[in-house]
Amino acid sequence: xxxxxxxxxxxxxxxxxxxxxxxxxxxxxxxxxxxxxxxxxxxxxxxxxxxxxxxxxxxxxxxxxxxxxxxxxxxxxxxxxxxxxxxxxxxxxxxxxxxxxxxxxxxxxxxxxxxxxxxxxxxxxxxxxxxxxxxxxxxxxxxxxxxxxxxxxxxxxxxxxxxxxxxxxxxxxxxxxxxxxxxxxxxxxxxxxxxxxxxxxxxxxxxxxxxxxxxxxxxxxxxxxxxxxxxxxxxxxxxxxxxxxxxxxxxxxxxxxxxxxxxxxxxxxxxxxxxxxxxxxxxxxxxxxxxxxxxxxxxxxxxxxxxxxxxxxxxxxxxxxxxxxxxxxxxxxxxxxxxxxxxxxxxxxxxxxxxxxxxxxxxxxxxxxxxxxxxxxxxxxxxxxxxxx
Length: 389
Ligand SMILES: [Zn+2]
Prior knowledge:
With about 400 residues, the chain is of the alpha/beta class. The protein is about 40% helix and about 15% strand. The chain has one domain (about 5-385): Alpha-Beta Barrel (TIM Barrel), CATH 3.20.20.140. Strands 2, 3, 4, 5, 6 and 7 form a six-stranded parallel sheet that branches. A three-stranded parallel sheet has the order 8-9-10. The longest helix has 19 residues, at about 365-385. It binds zinc ion.
């Protein structure tokens, strides 16, 4: 999600400064991807040992949107390779944002004004990205592949179940390796063209969220104006995504889209980053019944760490949200979906995930529950649902 604070204003300040100062995009990110200042979280020896044995999977981070080299540890934002390593993250889904309305809110947004246009110019992205949403997605995938090519022992892009299995095997000899999967936040990146789905698949994208903050060519957003169901184009694309082995993500989808996808889907679905209403009655969260219907089809619910999803963003609050999700949909359907670097304010960055293990132990989670939620469920889901090769 992107907070409804004045993203536009922050970017405009960045743009104003960009003429003379290459640091301006950094100032924008400083303002948007915050970690609440805190003393180091105490982590017991038991939690440390347990954390070191985990292979954590995070279903959603928007890191590629920002002007940073993910190979270097940054003092900005929430995710980069060194911090993923420290947090024992084994698989990170990197989602790409391509268009975000002005005056962002959870209730009603048109797709008229686009803040990402300002951001791509402020960050000096190639001109092909200035007016094309598909090019913005492709450019962000190129950034990830460039990092993987520069440091293949540190980060590897995964596009199939076979490659994931190989990557996990490689990690046995090189625990520092982070596996990365590309996803899209909002199918407006297709620009209404079926051929762009093929281009995005060829570029490595394996998970697509139908909606982001506004209704698009495939269907309605939870935060759109009409909030309608799947369009004819949307149905055709869901069918094609299933044929190709692209995982359908219902985060931000309108209830009508969720119902339409549930009625036609033959493969399991994800809600990559969300909360549940049991702990947070936010308009960002789908109804309990829809969450249960998604889980009943073998789906996976990724719980985020930001206020709009879980209300209490402390490590204890995230643990409570995970417990509520387990109670609602069952242990095997719950995963992590941080929304790190999604213009979110959080209480810990990805290097500090041991604090979440500590909070879960303190709340009585078993080791098996921690292992399932923090990685095993999502790892197994990907091994089954990514294209075989
Ligand atoms: Zn989001």
